């Protein structure tokens, strides 16, 4: 955990005013830049010291055998792991004859600033070499949001007290040596030098490297060009070899003189294109970047982000640190998804290699809700990626003896990579999460073309899966047995309520979509009999309820299980999965992460107010939050049922997950779902925003700590601003025609004639529920 105050509290940037090598690997994740296509961790320009060097291209991975002590039918045979591609960010510096290395000499000052409006990382430092020469180094780095293959660095060095001989080496480095991250030698082996050389080139200020992966058959090209400005003594020379492209710049600088280097880097990759094609792809992107120029790239970045913030900013009065954390969260979620363009959005974005770079339900469950209202094009693309993986999902369903499509629990290219079937194969809810994301996106955007071309197929194939996975009992009830819901401490359970409620929505949505798009339905072979069967199953779905306790059951029989012995579980035994066998977790009442509570958020229509409150109070003392995906969801429902202080504590946990490294693994990459969840807790929790029959409904309420909360949501081409204070909510239409919404159950028409202000409804307060001992979220107040 980052225990010292690492970042100063400022509204629009994240400033680290001195370098802490003990938390370097965390800060590399926090300062990562990405556009969803290219990602660079916040490694120091000179490459060393580093926690984990990281340059990623979304989708570029290596495959390796998946080990099983006892293999079984249908176990995936091969795993996929994101690889560290050619590093284009390295700029090494020699001062007289000393390498600039912060571990030696004296680092007089060191500041890094992640600018959330400008979309760049700026570093400024002053260093005295062991020989006593002092220089100032300034670098600014960006990954372009407007030119998706492009990254760029501006690097400046100046002597501060005496004349100095400077050598700068700007490099492209493939197959960097990485710290060992996995105990499995087979995995380490493929990751050790994943790139085989195909071509290298250097001439003048330019260089290029082409590589391919050994087993996954992907080709990666990276090209760089430079502009160098310095005194007349400045000379440049370039060279390349199989794994290195290098421009060496030498110069003699007097105090007051500066050597400046602008580096433009462009990536291209493909699983099908030829060597010349990938080479040309990288060169073309580079030409584009060169013609835009450094200042042009900065200006474009600012323009892109100005537009994003105008649609997506969340303003908070009353807690400056959370204000900063929320913008940090929004920025990173945007970075993860903005230009992913029909590739997966990994659970760590492109900020680290945690979870092997895999995507999970995190995307549809957490990231897409935010993007649906703030960057809807990215949602359509993320779901088109799912559609493009339908062949693999259909094959997987066949392999499992099921119909339709079974999307993978974790993957890079669309095929299942989970080697642990109880929490992989059995976690079928990912299919309903995808379907839910489709319906939400269509309801919010009215994107008919998307529904026709993509939505219908995703809904139909997932509905088919549910219909074949479930069965009607002799009384006609429809059950889905032997599945794992979001709570991974209960596996292979019958009638998981979350799964059943989302499957119900999925079955109905598919039947409705086919009615709207008969042609597409017919092309997929859907007939009336099939849609009738889906509707029957949806009507008859089982929703387990314990009528003695008056609470819903997370799955059939859950409330009958023995309670986990929380009193005898020590604080250092969390997360439980690292200290107790799964079989014991599975048979007791203990919840890893919001499951039934999540169902109450996504399917609030299936519960009345009293049930929500009782369910929340029942499951709170069982929920240990061993997953970062939990706090934000608990925060949403805590706010809904009136535990506003608790909701605020959960908001803080979600928002500060990475800034405080709360799970001790930010080094592996950021928790993108939790960051997106921050927005959910604010907008769906304190804003009380829900979709009901195509209408946006708000039940706003603020915790004492907040004086004001304001946010903007995009809905059907219109832009609605919501501003909440302790006593009222004001709705204004920033773009588009009149919009019908609901405020605390009452209809409100918002138009360009002016804002509408309504008083807040009183909140029924209840005694705060307890969490398991030692698992209470940190009090924010
Ligand atoms: C959670 C999953 C999640 C995965 C990736 C696990 O710890 O239990 O729900 O999808 O992490 O974030």
Give the helix/strand layout.
Elements: E1 8-9, E2 13-16, H1 24-30, E3 33-34, E4 38-40, E5 55-57, E6 61-65, E7 78-82, E8 91-95, E9 98-99, E10 106-115, E11 120-128, E12 134-143, E13 150-159, E14 164-173, H2 185-192, E15 195-203, E16 206-213, E17 219-229, E18 235-241, E19 244-253, E20 259-270, H3 275-312, E21 314-317, H4 320-337, H5 362-374, H6 376-388, H7 390-399, H8 429-445, H9 448-469, E22 471-472, E23 478-479, H10 497-516, H11 518-523, H12 528-539, E24 545-546, E25 551-552, E26 562-563, H13 582-586, E27 588-589, H14 596-602, H15 609-619, H16 630-640, H17 644-656, H18 672-686, E28 690-692, E29 695-698, E30 708-715, E31 718-725, E32 728-735, E33 739-743, E34 746-750, E35 756-759
Parallel strand pairs: 26-27, 29-33
Antiparallel strand pairs: 1-2, 2-10, 3-4, 4-5, 6-7, 8-9, 8-14, 10-11, 11-12, 12-13, 13-20, 14-19, 15-16, 16-17, 17-20, 18-19, 21-30, 22-23, 24-25, 28-29, 30-31, 31-32, 32-35, 33-34
